[in-house]
Amino acid sequence: MFAVFILFPTPCTHFEFRKIIMDFYLGMQKDQKDLIFSLPKSTMELQFGDLFFKPEIRRAIDLKPVLAFPEKLISDFEAYYMFRDIYESDEDREAITRARLRYDFTIIPPAEIGGENVKTYGHYHPENSFGLTYPEIYQVIEGEALFIIQRGEWGRVLDCVAIEAEKGDLVLVPPNFGHVTINPTEEVLLTSNWVCRDFTSIYEPYTNLRGACYYYLGGEWAKNPKYSEVPPLRFGKPFGRMKEEMYYLVAEIERLEFLSDPSKFSESIEKFWKK
Ligand SMILES: [Fe+2]
């Protein structure tokens, strides 16, 4: 169904991107009747239920401060699309807001800049009053992803984990970890995430050290030389797997309590798998 996906030796144009997403949309219609993407020709919008959402667009030029080879960025393009605060109905919106959560989609089309696969900018979450930062949970909906999460203290990275995830996989960003998502493939990557809605992300640590402590270059992990000390990269596994789109946890939103109250992370995360 994704036979029309094209290899992008150079960044794609809007037209090509829309064509791909439209093909993507047609594929989604066949497979997931509950989740329909619509991209009218004039504007890009995501249709979820009966509602339409517009994306925030992160351009390649916006990523320049975190690229392995910023000088290799010759022409700008739309690097990825963030659809934030998605809900299917007003009733869902109320339940999500009451739980202090937010549901987002991120679409990362395939592209590379100087041999580095396109990625999200990277950020940490702030600490809440108990000294732990808010966790986050991702699901790969289409495509394949690499997540690189890292934990630092006093300017040093103490732990760094790469997690490979495919369709259906859930990836947990635990408290005190920053995170970056990479599209290592030649197909569109679509992820969703649940996260607490009460904070603003912190981008500076990634800006100051030009990205995560490892880059993904030509299929290999390479240390980021801006970091004075980098721990060996560990390879982790997804947190779990769900056949259904994790949006539908909205019906059992108490399972996501660990996201809004990191102080109870250890005990409340157990509730996640409890049916
Ligand atoms: Fe985040």
Report on the structure:
- It is globular, with a radius of gyration of 18 Å.
- It has one domain: Jelly Rolls (Sandwich), CATH 2.60.120.
- By secondary structure, the chain is α+β, with helices and mostly antiparallel strands.
- It contains 6 helices and 17 strands.
- It starts with 13 loop residues before the first helix and ends with a helix.
- The protein binds fe (ii) ion.
- The site of fe (ii) ion has 6 residues, from loops.
- Fe (ii) ion is lined by residues 123, 125, 136, 179, 195, 201.
* Poorly predicted regions: 1-20, 25-42
**Distance N to C terminus:** 33 Å
Order of helices and strands: HEEEHEHEEEEEEEEEHEEEEHH
Largest sheet strand order: 3-4-5-13-8-11-17
The CATH H-level superfamily is: Jelly Rolls
The class by helix and strand makeup works out as alpha+beta
Number of domains: 1
CATH architecture group name = Sandwich
Main CATH class: Mainly Beta
What is the makeup of the main sheet?
7 strands, antiparallel
Number of helices: 6
